[in-house]
Amino acid sequence: MPRECARSARSQDHRLKPPRSRSALRRLPALLALLCIGLLGGCTNDNRPGPLVVYCAHDSLYADEILQKFTEQTGIQVSPRYDTEATKSLGLVQQLVREKDNPRCDVFWNNELLGTLHLKHQGVLQSYRGSGFDRIPEIYRDAEAYWAGFAARFRVYIVNTNEMQATADAIDEAWKGDLSETAIAKPLYGTTLTQYCVYWHLWGTDKLKSWNADLLKRGIRVVTGNATVKNLVAQGVCHWGLTDTDDFFLAVDDGSPVAMVPVTLENQQTICIPNTVAIIEGTQHRDEARKLVDFLLSAETELALANSKSRQVPLGPVDEQRLPDDVTQLLPWVERGYDLRVLNDARNQCLAWLQGEYGQ
After folding, report:
1. DSSP secondary structure string for all residues of 1-35
2. pLDDT tens, residue by residue, 8-42
């Protein structure tokens, strides 16, 4: 095509295009903004934040009331997931480790400490030092604020008072003889595992293994859990056994002829086992999770758990006039608690051995 014809064609093509409206150009940014808002609104509707997910190893009988009160006070909805009686807190701890890279839980309310120590070392927890942290004694909280304890229970001997005296001397004498009328929970879970890990740390591997083998040789009854120990002693099937304070108080409330003696260590230290609370790393509900942690570490929550049937003992300062007598009598045991924070390695080693001895 000649150069003149080409210029003429381009010029004619330009004239054929409709002129661009200035008003349309002015409206373009607003249209784009509306489009973005619509897209964002659609994303929000499709991914609406759900309730705060709480994995809870404490009994639902007691925890539900606490969590409902939190929702009433804050408006924050909570979706709790409880562990089974068979696996105690160990099942939830294992679940949280499996979910580490894709967390489904926001807050872990554990009914003991050892599993929480393990989660910290696995990088599952998020540090938070909130309004309730400093009211908890140092021995019952993490130095880096990855977890804090509250509302404790204790390892105790439960004694049928129709069969024997409930004294430390009577217990010491009973340890020396036949143990066929003595019960203990399988030490894979809960407070029994804690007691074994304390002994592992204090005594060393060989002494604990020898002690356990001797118990089995002398006929001690190894049962499914602390509640079973409580039932056997309350019914007089066994004369005494090892359990924890919350199960003991259930027997008291049933009118059973039972009394308790604390399990003590060197220097009369007690095995004081707090509930613990921690925020899960990667939570999408950080602010709500922090509010729940503050609520659980409050004097209000500790008083509520102290006045429940489990009679859990406050760790921080509370109005002692609002405590039942059963709990007031246990307050000195808190000050004598063994430092469980050092037990992570003992927990891992002892649990591996126990799983080989007793199975999963």
Report:
1. --HHHHHHHHHHHHHHSPPPPHHHHHHHHHHHHHH
2. 444 444 433 444 444 444 444 444 443 333 333 33
**CATH architecture entry for 52-152+273-335:** 3-Layer(aba) Sandwich (3.40)
In the chain, where the domains are located: 52-152+273-335, 153-268
> Cβ distance 250 to 170 under 8 Å?
no
| Same fold yes or no, 52-152+273-335 and 153-268 | yes
Strands 240-244 and 148-160: antiparallel
204-231 burial: b if 16+ Cβ within 10 Å, else e: eeeebeeebeebeeeebbbbebbbbbbb
Which of 348, 198, 347 minimizes the C-alpha distance to 264?
A: 198
> Rounded CA gap, 12 and 229, in Å?
99
137-140 own/partner pairs: CB under 8 Å, 24+ apart? 137/315, 137/316, 137/334, 139/337, 139/339, 139/341, 140/272, 140/274, 140/315, 140/337
Let me know how long the chain is.
360
At the second CATH level, the architecture of 153-268 is 3-Layer(aba) Sandwich (3.40)
pLDDT, tens digit, for every residue of 90-137? 789 999 999 999 999 999 999 999 999 999 999 999 999 999 999 999
Query: pTM of the full predicted structure?
Result: 0.85
